[in-house]
Every structure is written in structure tokens, then in C-alpha cells.
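Milestone 3.1: sequence recovery, worked example.
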């Protein structure tokens, strides 16, 4: 452990058991000044309580920030322009929040003349990588303290014993604790641990927080309309909304129809497989709508190129490379493709499912009824030309068949 020359640390602080113990442990081990930073990214919990807890523990420099609009506008929406999914299923709700938190930790460290930052991510997970790669990309000289890689408080019982020994106030619900490790923000809520560590165990219905069970969802469908401008949603049901408000409204609507539950075994960057359950109601609808809008407005080869690049882009986000030059290069290409992704998509929500029922774009649609029609041809497409097109494309197949026969 290198404890030299650490005078001030900015701690990502939630006010919960883990980060409260970390706060006291940093004082004990590093004998340094602590600055706390608490981010509101739409997790649905009162973040101001962290201020009172930090003050009670003797902290004078406390930062609590509402980052919901920045989070959705500058991180979630750019990711959705790429239709990003990791390993075919995961909408990256935890992954995409980490670069913003890393950015603010570094910003606050500079503002307060701190020489280190600290986080509560464990040594087994992806978040330690995401926080630290992001921090180093933004400030290569920053020092990072990751207590879970240093201390021996590797169980809830040890954490509680340490908290009791140090007189750290712990609420009753934290002493009991949830059977799951949960992480929430405006895009999703995740669940890990407990019975989920057995991939054969079915999640308890009581675990889910944002969505009703699909079988208990309303027996009538609900239709909604989402308007896009340059690939980003800007209106919901004809009402213009800010990014955070639009996603929040979508979460509520989709959640009551049981949309957005997912049960995944994923490959962590550190090398192990992990089973997690996710609720991403608004994001699930948004992905469906965005792809529908692109189907009408994007060129075929551009669409296919985006689909080829998306897994690479998703892996960069999942593995913590949001601030890397390759992600920024890909983002420039993706954003260029979105200039004509403008229009309205109509969707039907019903018992856990999302159906596209219509899409339109007044100025950017590449769909031409005169060409597609099964009625009289307009003269814009000569069906006889297909004969030569097929024969030219069949040539290599015919040569292969000739050789094989």
C-alpha cells in the first residue's frame, strides 16, 4: 500500500454502509482530508441525506450535484444513437453512468486541490476499471484509492463491525440490507448477488422495483409517439421534453406495462461470468423506436455499417473506454449518420412487449411508395433490369458449383 503524500481525497460517496466505512477508513489509513461527492443521476433516492451523514462524520467540503440532464443528454442519448447493446442483451445502464462520475470526481479534485480520488467499487467487478480508466484518461497524474483492493473488510459482517467500532451511524435498513446488490440511475436498475448467484434460480417477483409483472400489466394496450431530431428523442406524445424528463416519462409508461426486464449472464472485463437482472423500461422502448426511425431514414449500407460497428462500440463502453480516442472516433461517425434521422415513430405497449405500428419522416424518408408499390410501375424502376443484376451476382456461385460438380 502506498500511503505517501496523500493530503486530500475526493470520495464518491452515497451515504450508505460501504462508502461511510470507506470515509472513516481513509482517515484512519491515509490520515488525509476528505471531500465527498454525491451524484444524482436519477437513482430515485434522496441524495441530500448524504450531506447530513457526511457532516456528522466531520466532512466540511461536500459536493452534491444533480447530473440527470447531463447524464441523459451527453451519455445515454449518444449511446442510443448507436443502438448499443452488449452481448446482444445488455443496454449498459450501469456502464454508461461511470464515465460521468469519473469526470466529476476529477473535476472536483482539481477544484479542491485534492491529489487523489476514491471509489467503493470492488476488486471483482467492472466498475473499478471504468472509474479508473476514465479518471486516468482525464487526468493522467491523478492518484486513485480503491479500498476494496487494500483492506480485509471483505464481508458485510466485517463492514458492520468496523462501523460499530468507529461509531459510524448506520440506519436499520442498512443493517438488515437487501439480499441483492443494486445500482440504479435514470436509465436502469440492476440486481446482483443473493440467490441470483445461482444462474438456475428464478428471480423473486418482489425483487423488481420499476416494472410490474407482464402478466399483471393492463389488459389493454397503450399507444405512444416519439419524435426524433438528429437521432435523439425530443418529444413524447406531441410534448417537447428535456432529455431527462423524456426518459423519466418513458420509464413510467413502459414500467406499468411490464416492459424492460432482463435476466443475463454476461462476461465481465476482469474475466469472470456474472449473472445480473436489469430493468430498463424506457430504454427498451427507446431502442425499438430509434431503430424504427433509422429503418426509414438511413441508407442501407450506412445501416449495415452501424450494425457492424455497434458491438465494438458497446464493448468500449462496457469495458470503461468512454474517454478513449477510438470511442470518440466512432462517436463522430455515428453522429454523422444521425443528421437525417428525423421524424415520428408510433409504438404499442402491451404486457411486456413493444410493437412498432408506424413511422414517418416528412423530409428525410428514403421510403418511396412509387418505387415499392405492387401496383402500376411509375417508370422509376424497370423490373427487367433485375435479370442482369441476378445473373452478375450468381456468376461466382455458378463457377463454384461447376468446380464442385
Amino acid at each position: 500500500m502506498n500511503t505517501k503524500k496523500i493530503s486530500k481525497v475526493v470520495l464518491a460517496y452515497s451515504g450508505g454502509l460501504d462508502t461511510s466505512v470507506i470515509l472513516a477508513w481513509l482517515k484512519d489509513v491515509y490520515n488525509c482530508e476528505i471531500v465527498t461527492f454525491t451524484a444524482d443521476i436519477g437513482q430515485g433516492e434522496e441524495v441530500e441525506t448524504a450531506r447530513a451523514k457526511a457532516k456528522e462524520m466531520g466532512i466540511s467540503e461536500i459536493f452534491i450535484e444533480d447530473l440527470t440532464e447531463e447524464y441523459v443528454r451527453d451519455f445515454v442519448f449518444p449511446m442510443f444513437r448507436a443502438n448499443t447493446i452488449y452481448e446482444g442483451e445488455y443496454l449498459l445502464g450501469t456502464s454508461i453512468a461511470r464515465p460521468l462520475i469519473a469526470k466529476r470526481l476529477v473535476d472536483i479534485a482539481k477544484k479542491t486541490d485534492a491529489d487523489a480520488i476514491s471509489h467503493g467499487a470492488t476488486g471483482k467487478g467492472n466498475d473499478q476499471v471504468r472509474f479508473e480508466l476514465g479518471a486516468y484518461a482525464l487526468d493522467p497524474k491523478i492518484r486513485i484509492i480503491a479500498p476494496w483492493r487494500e483492506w480485509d473488510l471483505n464481508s458485510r459482517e466485517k463492514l458492520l463491525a468496523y462501523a460499530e467500532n468507529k461509531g459510524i451511524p448506520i440506519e436499520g435498513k442498512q443493517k438488515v440490507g437487501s439480499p441483492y446488490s443494486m445500482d440504479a440511475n435514470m436509465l436502469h436498475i440492476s440486481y446482483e448477488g443473493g440467490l441470483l448467484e445461482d444462474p438456475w434460480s428464478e428471480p423473486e417477483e418482489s425483487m423488481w422495483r420499476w416494472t410490474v409483472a407482464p402478466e399483471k400489466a393492463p389488459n389493454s394496450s397503450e399507444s405512444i409517439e416519439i419524435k426524433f431530431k438528429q437521432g435523439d428523442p425530443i418529444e413524447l406524445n406531441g410534448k417537447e421534453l428535456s432529455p431527462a424528463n423524456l426518459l423519466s416519462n418513458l420509464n413510467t409508461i413502459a414500467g406499468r406495462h411490464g416492459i424492460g426486464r432482463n435476466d443475463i449472464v454476461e462476461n465481465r472485463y476482469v474475466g469472470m461470468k456474472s449473472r445480473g437482472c436489469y430493468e430498463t423500461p424506457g430504454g427498451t422502448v427507446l431502442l425499438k423506436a430509434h431503430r424504427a426511425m433509422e429503418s426509414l431514414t438511413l441508407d442501407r449500407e450506412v445501416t449495415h455499417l452501424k450494425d457492424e460497428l455497434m458491438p465494438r462500440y458497446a464493448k468500449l463502453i462496457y469495458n470503461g473506454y468512454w474517454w478513449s480516442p477510438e470511442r470518440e472516433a466512432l462517436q463522430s461517425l455515428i453522429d454523422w449518420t444521425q443528421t437525417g434521422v428525423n421524424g415520428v415513430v408510433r409504438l404499442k405497449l402491451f404486457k411486456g412487449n413493444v410493437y412498432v405500428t408506424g413511422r414517418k419522416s416528412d423530409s428525410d424518408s428514403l421510403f418511396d411508395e412509387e418505387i415499392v408499390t405492387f401496383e402500376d410501375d411509375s417508370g422509376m424502376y424497370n423490373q427487367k433490369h433485375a435479370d442482369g443484376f441476378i445473373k452478375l451476382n450468381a456468376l461466382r456461385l455458378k463457377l463454384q458449383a461447376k468446380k464442385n460438380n
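The mean pLDDT is 94. Residues 300-319 form the longest helix (20 residues).
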